[in-house]
Design brief:
2 domains; five-stranded parallel sheet
Length: about 350
């Protein structure tokens, strides 16, 4: 049986004779406030209860700004792990997820491990942020990592990397229109699904006070009242929006070099809401139900591309038929002229 040794040398490792440089962990000031049930669900998914058991690869779902990444980061820190956050986009390639070759200062090729692979090697936790922005080709490169095989292969570096037993991974996904559908064979691996809902009033107050401790209680209460009304009317405004509204209110009042008077709360708040959100959000302040916003279903853009390709094919076929019809008509005309002669 062939043994594989990972030789740790400063900020790099050697895998099968190939030197691979590691990424640095993400260090942030993040605390998870409230909703202890979802934190426990994530920690349970990552737990192992037997030597033959493996950690799961949970999918964290929620509206933008609901705190999905904060939840994952807090769970990793609670597990005493270094955290590596990888931001997924529509342009993410398989080599971006695994190992990227870079030209060194001496014109030599250096292989740099992504945050994901670094977490695999060091036993850290990786957060694939906004995973539903990533194309299927990139997901396919992670298929063996997300099941009991727990490894990835780098075609560019020519190595296979096995995940450390302490390695953990989760994927955050926004519940809105995405660029690509998640393939079924990947979706079945990203389990369980952990849903993050909007926080309660008490938790929203605590979150705003944590993020903007310098904000007066009156402004925090004013903003949270608005958010609670928005949640009750199914308006997609998050606590992140509330933090930005409060911050902008404070910045506007700071221009006057005096504390924001209560009689101007409404004026500054309306201005902040329209600049941070939109004009329709004012309807919530006035007790009106906001106009529903149409959102495209998940994978809609991908389906449109397929439909456009189908239409283009039909147009090409129609053009060929028209040319055939024209040639036939021309033959008939020529035949007709000959007959007249």
């Amino acid at each position: 049986m062939r043994l594989r040794f990972y030789l740790l040398i400063m900020d790099s490792i050697t895998v099968d004779g190939v030197q691979i440089f590691l990424s640095k962990p993400t260090e942030l000031e993040m605390d998870w406030i409230g909703q202890d049930d979802v934190l426990e669900q994530l920690l349970a998914a990552w737990a192992t209860i037997d030597e033959a058991d493996l950690p799961m690869c949970p999918r964290i779902l929620g509206q933008p700004g609901s705190g999905k990444t904060t939840l994952a980061y807090a769970a990793a820190k609670k597990s005493n792990k270094d955290v590596y956050i990888f931001q997924c986009t529509a342009d993410t390639r398989p080599e971006d997820l695994i190992i990227t070759p870079v030209m060194g200062s001496k014109q030599e090729i250096r292989y740099h491990a992504s945050g994901l692979v670094t977490a695999m090697i060091t036993g850290g936790a990786c957060i694939l942020d906004e995973g539903n922005r990533m194309p299927e080709k990139s997901w396919a490169s992670l298929a063996p990592l997300l099941d009991k095989r727990r490894y990835v292969e780098s075609i560019l570096a020519g190595v296979q990397i096995k995940a450390h037993p302490d390695f953990r991974i989760c994927v955050t996904m926004n519940q809105d229109a995405s660029v690509f559908d998640i393939p079924d064979y990947i979706g079945s691996r990203l389990q369980p699904k952990i849903h993050v809902s909007y926080p309660s009033r008490e938790n929203e107050i605590a979150i705003l006070q944590y993020n903007i401790p310098f904000a007066p209680k009156e402004i925090v209460d004013y903003v949270v009242d608005f958010l609670q009304k928005a949640h009750g009317q199914d308006a997609a405004y998050s606590v992140r929006d509330g933090v930005n509204i409060a911050r902008f209110m404070l910045k506007l009042s700071a221009r006057e070099d005096q504390p924001l008077p209560k009689d101007k709360f409404s004026t500054y708040f309306r201005m902040a809401v329209t600049k941070i959100l939109d004009d329709d959000a004012i309807d919530i302040l006035d007790g009106k139900r906001p106009r529903p916003k149409f959102t495209f279903p998940q994978g809609f853009a991908n389906q449109v591309l397929k439909i456009n390709d189908f239409i283009d094919d039909l147009d090409d076929d129609s053009s060929d038929d028209d040319e055939d019809d024209d040639s036939i008509a021309g033959d008939k005309d020529r035949d007709g002229k000959k007959k007249k002669k």
